[in-house]
Amino acid sequence: MKPVLNVVPRVTVAVTAAPADGVVVSARSRTRGRKPLRGVTRRIRSKPLPLTVKAMRAVVQRVASASVEVEGRIVSEIGPGLVVLVGIHDSDSDADADYICRKVLNMRLFPNENTGKAWDHSVMQKKYQVLLVSQFTLYGFLKGNKPDFHVAMPPQKANPFYASLVDRFRNTYNSDAIKDGVFGAMMKVNLVNDGPVTMQLDSQSSKNTSDTAES
């Protein structure tokens, strides 16, 4: 009976460029004393780089009505319009606040009854109201099962920054149409989402992708 030889393959690997989904690895194997292995070509998908967002974040909801309650008392309420939950990142600047204010007031989330177009009018064109609510948890993420909020702007810095954002909305639109919650308070936000319609906005200041032209 002939003894069995241990065969150690010698593998030559060639890496070539591939389309956007990864790289192609070609392996050609040769052996000593046995039949060569068939050539193997396999595709390895490259892992995308993690995306780090450093921007002001707003979750915008089209509503039929909404209100904010603090300690059993209603502190703000609106009829038809927008509820805007605002998350402030620790690196946010006036440019981020300007972007969010401009986009929220001009985004076309309301129908035009005259033309029948579903997405044609902004909250200002409809003369509706806006309810702003500060929500630092929009910049939370999980460490295991525990939420972490360290990238949100600290309260002592975020309080005046958020107040300046509210003033931007009031100065740009109609001060009577802009309502606000209570910064740092435990709030109960009650709303009737109309649609439902909910959109998320991340500010596009110089530290992120530049804003596209408005249509």
Number of strands: 11
Number of separate helices? 3
Poorly predicted runs are: 11-29, 205-215
What share of the residues lie within helices?
10-25%
Quick summary:
Pfam families: Tyr_Deacylase. The protein is built from 3 helices and 11 strands; from the N terminus they run E-E-E-E-E-E-H-H-E-E-E-H-E-E. It has 215 residues and is an alpha+beta fold.
Layout of helices and strands, plus pairs?
Elements (H helix, E strand, L loop, with lengths): L9 E7 L5 E9 L9 E6 L11 E14 L2 E6 L2 E7 L6 H13 L16 H4 L2 E6 L6 E3 L2 E3 L6 H18 L5 E3 L6 E16 L13
Parallel strand pairs: 6-7, 7-10
Antiparallel strand pairs: 1-2, 2-3, 4-5, 4-6, 4-11, 8-9
Helix pairs in contact: 1-3
Structure description:
This protein is of the alpha+beta class. It has a domain at 57-202: D-tyrosyl-trna(Tyr) Deacylase, Chain: A. The protein is 16% helix and 37% strand. The protein has 3 helices and 11 strands, in the order ββββββααβββαββ. A hairpin with a 2-residue loop joins β8 and β9 (146-148). α1 packs across α3. InterPro entries: Daa-tRNA_deacyls_DTD, DTD-like_sf.
Descriptive labels:
single chain; 215 residues; alpha+beta; D-tyrosyl-trna(Tyr) Deacylase, Chain: A; 6-stranded mixed sheet; 3-stranded antiparallel sheet; 3 helices; 11 strands; 16% helix
